[in-house]
Amino acid sequence: MPNELEQPNLTIIRRRKKENGDTKDTRLENGQIIKTDLIGGITPEEVNEKEVRTKNEAMERKLKEEITDFLATRK
């Protein structure tokens, strides 16, 4: 039986690590969003990818705030 993550009709759209080390997936299966728990945690590469994404989002928010503040002071 193939691993559910390797099936061509599945697309993971969000993956997060839960406190107990398990993985929570939000995935798209044949056009429907399905939430699943995967036992056993996630690989370090996936954790690092999420950390990088989170840091990039935080930097983007900070930059938007700085631009907004700058534009407000110019008026």
| Number of strand elements | 3
Instruction: Please state roughly what percent of the residues sit in beta strands, choosing from under 5%, 5-15%, 15-25%, 25-35%, 35-45% or over 45%.
Output: 25-35%
The helical percent reads 40-55%
Number of alpha- plus pi-helical segments: 1
What series of H and E elements makes up the topology?
Answer: EEEH
Distance linking N and C termini: 64 Å
Q: Whole-number average pLDDT?
A: 65
Number of spatially distinct domains: 2
List key phrases describing it.
single chain, 75 residues
Give your account of this protein's structure:
With 75 residues, the protein is of the alpha+beta class. The protein has two domains: 1-41, no CATH class; 43-75. Helices cover 41% and strands 29% of the residues. It has one helix and three strands; from the N terminus they run βββα. It has one helix at 44-74; strands at 10-17, 23-29, 32-38. The chain has a three-stranded antiparallel β-sheet. The chain starts with 9 loop residues before the first strand and ends with a helix. The mean pLDDT is 65.
